Amino acid sequence: MIVKAAAAALLGLGCTFADAVSLPLTDGRPAGPFVKRQSAPAKYTPTASDLESGCANIGRVAASFARTVEAANASSFQVDPKIAYDCLASIPLDKEPVTIFLNEIRKFVQFQSTLEYLARPPDKSGQDPMDILSGLIDIGSAVNSSSITSWYEVETRVEKLLGGCHEGHLYVAWVLPSLINFRAPFQLVSLSEDGTQLPKVYVADDVALERGRVSGTNASAITHIDGEDVVTAIDKLMYYESSQSPDVRWNAAFQTQNPPKQGDFYTRTRYPGANTFILTFENGTSTEYPYIANALNVPGGSLWSSLASGQDIWDKLINVPPRQNTGAAGKLRVRALEDNKHRIQRTPLDDAIDRLTKRQSNDNVAPPPEQLIRYDGDFPDTPGVSPFIQDINKVIGGYFMADYDDRESKTAIIDITGFSPDDPTAQFATQAVQAAVELFLEEAQRRKMERLIIDVRGNGGGFVNMGYDLYKQLFPSSEPYAGTRLRNHPASLKIAQAFTQLVDQDVINGLIRDIGGGMGENLSNAQLSRYQNAQYASLSNLNQYLNLDANGSTFRSFDDFFGPVDIYDDQFTHILTYDLNNLLAVGDLGYSITGYGDRASYATKPAPFKPENIVLVTDGTCASTCGIFAEFLRNQQKIRTVVIGGRPNRDPSVAVGGTRGAQVIQHTAHMLNFVQIIENNFAPVDAAEKAEWDQIFPRPFQMNIAEAAVNWKDNIRATDPTQTPLQFYLEAADCRLFYTKQTLVYSHELWNKVDDLAWGSEDSCAQGSLKNATVVLGDANGVPVSIGRSSTAGYNSGANGDLPQLTGDYDVDTALWIWYGVRHSFGASRGRNI
Ligand SMILES: *[C@@H]1O[C@H](CO)[C@@H](O)[C@H](O)[C@H]1NC(C)=O
Ligand SMILES: *[C@@H]1O[C@H](CO)[C@@H](O)[C@H](O)[C@H]1NC(C)=O
Ligand SMILES: *[C@@H]1O[C@H](CO)[C@@H](O)[C@H](O)[C@H]1NC(C)=O
Ligand SMILES: *[C@@H]1O[C@H](CO)[C@@H](O)[C@H](O)[C@H]1NC(C)=O
Ligand SMILES: *[C@@H]1O[C@H](CO)[C@@H](O)[C@H](O)[C@H]1NC(C)=O
Ligand SMILES: *[C@@H]1O[C@H](CO)[C@@H](O)[C@H](O)[C@H]1NC(C)=O
Ligand SMILES: *[C@@H]1O[C@H](CO)[C@@H](O)[C@H](O)[C@H]1NC(C)=O
């Protein structure tokens, strides 16, 4: 709790931190004695006896912690990082279940839309080649040959393989980090004196102590971490972050307020490789600090007394099928899902299915707008100012600069840090945001507002229809264009054929006629089952009738829809667009996007703001639905963007640096349902087909894995003849700024600065300009232009004895990284077959 409190103290407010972990620490800072030393602390390798005693040692700490007052409520207790790692590293594995698991992931990543682009990235994408299929085979062979005998190492290597893809929609959510994880003893901030001077890195608490100017005599900036220049050190530390932009990965290291984040210098998750680290400051001091480890506390339980060894953890928590456990393994999985909620996003389908299950009650009718919004309430992201209006789930806030600034300002602000509520049980989230935006824009017109700042910092996406709706409320007559496509491979083809047969045009028409806007109330069981099938078919997009072509027309045939289309030495569907008039295709029969369905009449309303009077503010973390929304604003309306943060340099930096993929699909929550619906409704014709289904269809994990996900659909700009996914273009923002102590904490200080830069007296961005925006989206033909570096090192073989090389933005000490390049250079474009 102290770490939380210390962070809040810096920010001068009592906010809570999104990813805060309660730490029963008595002091956020470690006690001494620590020697002054410059070189890196030695990497730690446990001995056989360390491995033997690690988990039992945690058990002893757990037993004494259980006798403290805090134990009643704490979610974790602190242990020495050494014994935490001793325990983790002692977890063994059985080859068979691990091999089955790796094979399951291999089947599932066939659905990763950019599989081939990742193995052989386009020039200037900034992406290093990552051949996932070969990498999984490598890990599997290492397990089979007993060169990997530790489950923790399997997890770490799979995580690095997927993390190196820098694709936020591609991940495995493990349970082990919810049992034991690591922290630095404090958080860092990256601050500039005035927003345009290059930033320096500080210990967050040091800056808080000073409460004045950052560059005063008290707070001394960090110059080195473990003897390495601080910029290089943080760059390396953040290499496996999910952003494709090194600047956005850099930002992920630091504490922020909007949205509240502790930063991944602090939140380590995995063992840092050593038990201590050394910071060197500008004032010449070097200090060694210990890392912290947290072990799961189950109040009132005796979890650790049954986990005396790594073997116990393997047997009782890991090598357990998730569907067959209700005990400690099941609880740990629930905890892991909770810990991963920032990336395991609900979809409108999950909402709709929830409502279906209570279809006999009246709960499934959306309350009137006035019950879905709140005026003048506080908002966690913006201390010091309250939004004029917000939705009840605190997703979106609408502000007027004149309300907090005494100027006669004509600037309004929309702040949206995600396109879904933090609370997964929140009801009618899309309806509530729609209502808040509508009422806010009406008030803005009443007050004759002329300009709008849209702040999407930290926005990792969410419900796609919420992003479309916000765009349509701002530009009612514009047709938002997002051309998307899926990977065409044997499993996606089979599922698409089955879903297209099962949920045909007659079924769709029947459901719309029977259900309409009634949200599934009083459905018969047969209708309910058809509706569920249709919902999953819609979510999967693997259905000819629930998609439109690039021109917004229906597909004439299955092949017109599904292809295959040969591109980049891989196969895809044709370009798909949403059928926004079809509520079933949009995902929720109870919700119309503004301008369509029940809200079709809105399409004739005038736009409340001119595009040149709108500025989009990001911190590069604009992912998924946010990326789709930003693409509408930038590509269709030429709206200017400001990006905050990034490495201390004066290069252009990306505006949208989160995944630009158009959809994520989860293995267990979604994919297994697709397969089950297909298998419930169709039977294989013969044993050969049955065998094929087993070989290509994802199946439930046989180990305790919380979840896994892939990027399902690419977003492709209409003007790009190469049809390269937007994910592989790093497109610069018009203007770049750095955080100051004021703008880091107070969003309204940042908005005032952006207002001045866009429409007032200020001119200087740290890079670029808003008044004279020169970033043209795309070249003369509208093809996107990427600021990623050219590949310099060519392709990697990654195989026997070849020195792996990173081809992206930085030369990283390759000995530190597990590397998966394209195995056979140009030849093995699809990875190695097995
Ligand atoms: C634990 O939480 C409960 C409920 O929130 C509270 O009543 C109790 O005082 C807390 N106990 C401790 C030791 O903090
Ligand atoms: C695992 O190793 C054995 C030999 O130890 C070999 O026969 C088998 O084919 C290997 N399996 C895989 C999947 O590589
Ligand atoms: C910071 O420096 C000022 C003078 O430069 C001094 O008065 C003050 O006590 C210092 N604060 C801390 C916390 O060291
Ligand atoms: C140097 O700066 C660091 C970080 O601000 C601080 O903790 C340390 O006390 C300073 N050392 C001296 C000798 O002033
Ligand atoms: C559903 O059934 C209830 C109870 O029979 C009825 O009151 C309600 O009007 C029905 N709803 C619809 C939309 O038909
Ligand atoms: C869309 O329309 C354009 C212009 O009429 C045409 O060239 C193109 O083939 C159409 N695309 C599809 C997928 O029908
Ligand atoms: C705007 O930018 C262009 C291109 O960099 C430059 O030629 C022009 O002088 C700039 N105009 C102003 C007013 O700064």
Question: Which spans have pLDDT < 50 for at least 5 consecutive residues?
Answer: 1-37, 792-834
Q: What is the name of the CATH class of the domain at 385-481 and 599-659 and 726-768?
A: Alpha Beta
Taking the sheet with the most strands, its summary is:
9 strands, mixed
Q: Total number of helical segments?
A: 27
| Mean pLDDT over the residues | 86
Distance between the termini: 50 Å
**Radius of gyration from CA coordinates:** 26 Å
Bound compounds, each kind once, are: 2-acetamido-2-deoxy-beta-D-glucopyranose
- Percent of residues in helical segments? 25-40%
SSE-based structural type = alpha+beta
CATH superfamily of the domain at 385-481 and 599-659 and 726-768: 2-enoyl-CoA Hydratase, Chain A, domain 1
Oligomeric organization of the protein chains = single chain
Fold and architecture overview:
The chain has 834 residues and is α+β, with helices and mostly antiparallel strands. Among the domains are: 385-481 and 599-659 and 726-768, Alpha-Beta Complex (2-enoyl-CoA Hydratase, Chain A, domain 1), CATH 3.90.226; 483-576 and 662-715, no CATH class. 33% of the residues lie in helices and 12% in strands. Strands 11-12-13-14-15-19-20-23-24 form a nine-stranded mixed sheet, sandwiched between helices. Strands 2, 16, 21 and 22 form a four-stranded antiparallel sheet that branches. The relative contact order is 0.14. Residues 1-37 and 792-834 have low confidence and may be disordered. Bound molecules: 2-acetamido-2-deoxy-beta-D-glucopyranose (NAG) (7 copies). It comes from Orbilia brochopaga. This is Tail specific protease domain-containing protein. Keywords: Signal.
